C-alpha cells in the first residue's frame, strides 16, 4: 500500500467498524441526530470515542470529518481562508465548512484544547439556528439537513483554564464513555490483536490493576488501546513481560518506582 | 433541505419567532430604539436573549446581524479589512460596518469576550455621534437612521479581567433577563419540544431543583434550552430518566457525586 | 437619514455644540493652543470631555480627528501604513498624520489604553520639535502651525500597568474635569432630553445619591449621560422608576443588593 | 507655516540651540567623539538631554537622527526592511542604517524601552568594530568615520525587567544629567517663556518644592520644561496660580491630596 | 569535502552505523514496526538515541528524516505550507508529509519541546488510522505502508508544562535508554575517539563519578558523547586533565565549587 | 573613511589582531577544530572573547561570521528565508547557512539570549552529523570540512529561564575566560589606549577595586574595555578622575552611594 490522498467529504466509512456498545449510546445518538441536536462525548483517552464516531458515521451513512483540536487551532482553521494559488486568490473551505455544506458528521476531538474563537464559531451551529457565519466570505451558511456536530472532551484532564463554558456545554446532548466491562474488553483485545482469550483476559486484569493505581502515583491507567498494543507485540514474539513493559508500563509513566511496581504486577501475571 | 448561503443584510426574520415576554422589555427596547439609544442585555445562558433579539428584529422589521464574540475577535473582524481577490485588492466590510450601512440591528453576543479594541470601536457608535471610524479605509461612516446596536453579557461569568468598563456600560440602556416563571417555562417547553403539559411541568420542576444547587456544587442550573432538549429526546422515545441524564445532568456538570445527586432527583420525578 | 461617509480632515463641527463651561477650561485651552502646547483632559466617563473637544474644535474652527485608544492600537494605526490596492502599493496616512498635515485637532481618547509605541510617537509632537517621524516612509513631518494635540485619560481607572509615564505627562498642560454643579447639570439634562426642569432636578438628585455610593459598592456613580438617557426614555413614555432602573441602575452595576438599594432610592424620588 | 517634510539625513541643526552647560559634558562628549566612543546620557525627564543632543549636533555639524524607543521597537525598525512599492520590492534603510551611512549622530532616546534585539544590533556599532550587520540585506556596513552613537535612559524609572545589561552599558562613555542650578534654571525659564526674572525665580522655587516631595507622594518633581509651560501660559494672561495648577501640578500627579498640597505651595508663592 | 546538499527522502544511511545494543531494543522496534505501531524513545542526552535511530534506519533500509523539535515548531513546519516562488504559489511538503508519502522513518527528537499543535497532527498518524490530515491542502494522506513514526523525549528534563499528555503517550510503544555498561562504554569511547583501552576505561570511571554527583550539585552527569570528545582532544595532544576540564567538566557545569571538585576527581585519575 | 559594505563570507581578518593568550586556549581551540568539535566560550563581558575569535579566525585563515543573539532571534534569522525582490521570490541564506557553505567560522555571541528554535537548529551541526536542515528549502546541507561553530555565553548573567540546556552544552568543548593578570592587563590598556605604563597600572588597580565590589553593590566590575575607554579619554585631555567617572563608574552603576564610593577610590589613585 502506498500513500493515498482523499478529500474529507469522501471519507465514508466503507466497512462496519468493530464496535461493542457499552450502553444505550447508539440509540441516544440516533435520537439526538433525528432532532438535529449536537452531541458531546466525554471520557478518558483510548476508551473508544473515536471508534464510536466511526461506527455512527457508518451506521448513519454520512462522511466523517474529524478535527483533532489543539492550542493553536483557530476558527479560521475550521471555517476556511483565502489562499493565493497561481496568481489567483481562492477561498478554501475549512473542515467545518466542508461538513456543513456536504451534510457530513463533523467531529471536533478534544474541543477544549482549541482557541476560544472555535467555541464561538460552533455556537450558532449548535442551537436551532444551525448556521455557520463565514465572516471573511461575508456570508452565512445554513447547514445541510444531514449535518451533524459532535465534540469530545476528557473531563479528567481539564484545568480551570480549559473548561467547557456553560454557554457552550448547555447546547449539547452529552454521552459519558468509560472502559468496557472486563469480559467485553478481553473480547475486544483478542479480536483486535490476535491473541488467545486467556492472554487477553490476563492483559485486561493487568490493565485493571493499573487503573486502580490512578491517583496513587499514576495519572491515568492503561487504556484498551495499550492492551491491544501489548497483544500485537506478543503476537510478533515479544515475551509478555517485555511487551507489558514497553507497550503499557513505559507508555503510562516515567516514574522509576512506579515502573518497578507495575513491572512486579506484570511478572506476577505472566 | 440543503446548505443555503445568504448575505447578513438579508437576514430578515420572516416569521414571528415564538417569544413570551417576561416584563416590559419589549416596550423599553422600542423606546430606546426610538431615541437611537443602544441596548445591553444581561442574563444567564439559554434564557432567551438570542430569541428576544430575533423577536425584536421581526417586530422592528430590520435585518439582524449577530456576532458571537470571543477572545480573538478584533475590531477589524467587526469593521472590515482589505482582501486580495483575483489580483485586485478589495475592501470587505465586516458585520458591524454592514449593519451601520444597511440600517440593520447589530447584536454583539458576549461582548466582553472580545478583544479590547472592539469595545472602543463601538464607543462612537454608542453615543450621540453614532459614527463608525473606519481607519483602514480612512473614512468615518455616520450610521443609517435605522441602525441599532445591541450587546449582551452574562454578569455571572465575568472575571475581573473581562468586566464591562464603566466607560462602555454607561452608554447603554440595560435590560436584565432571567429564567421565565414556572408556568411560562412549562408552556415554552411543551410548545418547543412537543411533549405534554404534565411532562413539561415535571421537567421545569427538575430544572428548578438544579438551579437551587447553583453555588453548592453546580456552576449553573439547567437552562430552558436544556429542558427543550430533554423533551425532544423523550419525544423520540428515549426514557425520561435517560433523557434527563444526557440532555441535562451530563450537560451541566462532570462531577461524579453531583451527577449521582442529580440522577436521584430525576428518578424521584419520573 | 442614510449612512453618510466623510473624510476625517473634513470633520469640521458646523453648528455650535451645546456646552456649559465649568471653569476657565476654555481660556486655558486657548492659551495653550496659542503657545502650541498640547493639552491633557482628565476626568470620569460621561462628564463632557468629548463634548468639550467638539466645542473647542468649533470655536477654533479646526477639524476634529478623534481616536479612541485601546489595547491593540499601535503607532502604525496612528501614523499610517502601506496598503496594496489594485496592484499598486499606496501609503495611507493614519489619523495622526492626517491631523499633522491638515492642521487639525487630534484628540486621542483614553491614551493610556493604547500600546506603548503610541506614547513615543507623540513625544516629538508634544515638545517644541512638533515633528512626526514617519519611519516607514523615511521622512519627518513638521506639524502645520494649526495642528493641536489633545489627549484624555481617567485617573480613577488606571492601574499601575496603565499609568501615564512622567516622560509623557510632563509634556502637557492638564485640565481636570468633573460632573457639573447640580443646577447646571439639571439644565443640561432638561435641554438634552426634553423633560421638564422638575424631573431633571430629581434625576440629578438621584445621580448624586449614586455618586455618594462610589467606593461603597459602586465602582462609579451615574454620569450626566445616563441622566439624559433616563430623561429620553421618560419622554417616550417609560415610567420614571423603570427608566431609572434600565438607563441608570442596570447600567452602572450588576450587583443584586446594590441594584435593590438603588431601586429604593429611585422609588423614593419618583 | 504649513506641514513640512524632510529626510532624516538632512536634519542639520541650522541655528545654535539655546543650551546652558551644567558641567564639562561638552568637552567629554567631544573627547568621546574624537575617539569614536559611543555616549550614554542618564537623567530625569525634561532636564535637557534632547536639547544637549541638538546642541552637540549643531556644534559637530552632523545631522541628528533621533529615535524615541518603545516596547514594540525592533531591530528591523532601526536597520531597515524590504517594502513592496509599485510592484517592486525596495529595501528601505531604517534610521540607524541611514545614520551609519551618512555619518550622522544617531540618538536612541530611552533605549531600554525598546525590544531586546535593538540592544544587540547596536553592540557591534558600540565597540571597535563600528559595524552594522544588516542580515536581511546579507551585508555588513562599516560605519562612516563621522558616525556617532548616543543613547539615553532614565535610571530612576527602570525596573528590573528594563535594565541596561552590563554587556551593553560597558560599551559607552556615560554622562549624568540633572536639573540645572536655581539661577541657571531661572535664566532658562525667563529666556524660553518670555516672563520676567522675578517670576522665573518664583517658578523655580516652586519646582524645587515639588522636587523635595519626590518619594513622599510624588513620583517625580516638576521638570524645567513644565516651568517653561507655566511661564508661557502666564505670558498669555493665565493667572500664575492657575498656570501652576494646569501646567505643573496636574501634569505631575493625579492624587487629590497631593494636588491640594501643591496648590497651597503655589498660592503661598504667587 | 565541501558543503553537500541532499533531499530528506534520499537520506538513506549507507554504511552500518556503529551501534552496541544495550538490551532487546532492536527486536522490540522491529516488532512494533511490523505492526506499524509508533515508537517512543526515552532517555538522557548523549546516550545514543540518535545513533540507534540511524542504526534502525540502516537495518530497515528506510530513509531517516529527523526533526529536532523546539518551542516555535508548529504543525505547519511539519506538514507543509504554501510558498510563493517565481510568481507561482507552490505547496511545499514539510518533513512529516515527506516521510508519510515516501514511506520513510520520521524521527521527532524532543517532541515535547514543540508547540501543542504538533502533538495533535501526529495523533491520527499514531493510531490505526495512520492518516495525516493536511488541512491547508484540503486533503488527507493515508501513510505509505513503510512509514514509521518515532519520537523521543528526556523524562528527566520535563516540567509540568512540557509533559507528554496521556492521550499522546498512550499511542506509542516505549523504549527506555540509559548509559551503556562500563565495559561497553569503554569499548565505544576507544572505538570512536581512537584512544587506548586503558585511557577509555579511566574516562568512563571519571564519567561515572560525575553521574553519581547528579542531584548533588550537578544537573546531569557526563554523557558518552563527552567522553568521546575528551578522547579526541587527548588524541590530538591535549593533556588528559585539561581535556577532561574542557570537554567534560566545563561542558556540564558553570559552578565554581563543582568545577573544582570535578577537577580534583580528574586529577586523581590521570 | 566612508561607510563600506561587505559580504559576511569575505570577512577575513587581514591583520593579526592584538591578542594576549591567558592560558592554553589557543591550542585547545586548534585541537577541537582539528576534530571538528564545536567550541563554547564562557566569561564576563569585555574580557576579550570577541577579540579571541578574531584572533583564531586570523590564525585559521577562515572568514568570521558573528551573530549577536537576542530575544527575538529565530532559527530563520540564522538559516535564511524567502524574500520577494523585483517580482521574483529569492531564497536568502542566513549567516549560519553562509558559514556552513563557505567553510567559515560561525560565532554565535550570547547564544542563550536567542529563541529556543536557534538552539535546535545548531544541534545537528554540533554533533557528528555536521548537517544543517533547511526545512523551508526542503534540503539538508552537510557542512563544508572547514566549517567551525563557536558560541559564547556569560554564566554570571543567566537566569533559570535562559540557561544552556544539557542537551546543548554537552555537544561543545568549553573554554573559560576571565580578566587577564594585572601586568598583562596593564600592557593591554597601554597598548590599546596610548597612555603610559604607570597610568595603565593605576587604571588596572582601580578596575580590581571595582571587581572586589562585585556582589557588594556592584553587579559587575569594570571590564578591560572600560579601562581602555578611560585611557583614551585621558589621552584626549580629560582629567583622569573625570575620565574614570564617565568611562568607568557611570558605565557600571547608577547607584548614587556606589558612585560616590567608586569616586573616592579613583580620587585616592589619581
TrEMBL record, chains A, B, C, D, E, F:
UniProt family annotation: Belongs to the CbbQ/NirQ/NorQ/GpvN family.
Gene3D superfamilies: P-loop containing nucleotide triphosphate hydrolases
Keywords associated with the record: ATP-binding, Nucleotide-binding
ATPase dynein-related AAA domain segment(s): 38-172
Gene designation per UniProt: norQ
Domain CbbQ/NirQ/NorQ C-terminal: 185-267
Protein name from the UniProt record: Nitric oxide reductase NorQ protein
UniProt superkingdom: Bacteria
The organism of origin for this protein: Sulfuriferula plumbiphila
InterPro entries to which the protein is assigned, alphabetical: ATPase_dyneun-rel_AAA (IPR011704), CbbQ/NirQ/NorQ/GpvN (IPR050764), CbbQ_C (IPR013615), P-loop_NTPase (IPR027417)
Alphabetized GO MF terms: ATP binding; ATP hydrolysis activity
Amino acid at each position: 500500500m502506498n500513500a493515498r490522498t482523499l478529500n474529507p467529504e469522501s471519507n465514508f466509512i466503507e466497512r462496519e467498524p468493530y464496535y461493542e456498545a457499552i450502553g444505550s449510546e447508539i440509540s441516544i445518538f440516533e435520537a439526538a441526530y433525528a432532532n438535529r441536536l449536537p452531541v458531546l462525548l466525554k471520557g478518558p483517552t483510548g476508551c473508544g470515542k473515536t471508534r464510536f464516531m466511526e461506527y455512527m458515521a457508518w451506521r448513519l451513512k454520512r462522511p466523517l470529518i474529524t478535527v483533532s483540536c489543539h492550542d493553536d487551532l483557530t476558527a479560521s482553521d475550521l471555517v476556511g481562508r483565502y489562499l493565493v494559488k497561481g496568481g489567483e486568490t481562492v477561498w478554501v473551505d475549512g473542515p467545518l465548512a466542508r461538513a456543513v455544506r456536504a451534510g457530513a458528521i463533523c467531529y471536533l476531538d478534544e474541543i477544549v484544547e482549541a482557541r476560544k474563537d472555535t467555541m464561538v464559531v460552533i455556537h450558532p451551529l449548535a442551537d436551532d439556528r444551525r448556521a455557520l457565519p463565514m465572516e471573511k466570505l461575508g456570508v452565512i451558511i445554513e447547514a445541510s439537513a444531514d449535518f451533524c456536530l459532535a465534540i469530545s472532551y476528557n473531563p479528567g484532564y481539564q484545568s480551570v483554564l480549559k473548561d467547557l463554558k456553560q454557554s457552550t456545554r448547555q447546547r449539547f446532548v452529552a454521552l459519558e464513555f468509560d472502559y468496557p466491562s472486563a469480559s467485553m474488553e478481553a473480547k475486544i483485545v483478542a479480536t483486535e490483536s490476535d491473541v488467545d482469550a486467556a492472554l487477553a483476559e490476563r492483559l485486561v486484569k493487568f490493565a485493571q490493576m493499573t487503573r486502580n493505581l490512578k491517583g496513587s502515583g499514576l495519572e491515568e491507567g492503561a487504556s484498551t488501546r495499550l492492551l491491544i498494543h501489548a497483544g500485537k507485540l506478543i503476537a510478533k514474539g515479544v515475551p509478555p513481560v517485555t511487551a507489558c513493559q514497553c507497550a503499557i508500563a513505559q507508555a503510562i509513566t516515567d516514574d522509576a518506582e512506579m515502573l518497578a511496581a507495575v513491572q512486579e504486577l506484570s511478572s506476577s501475571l505472566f
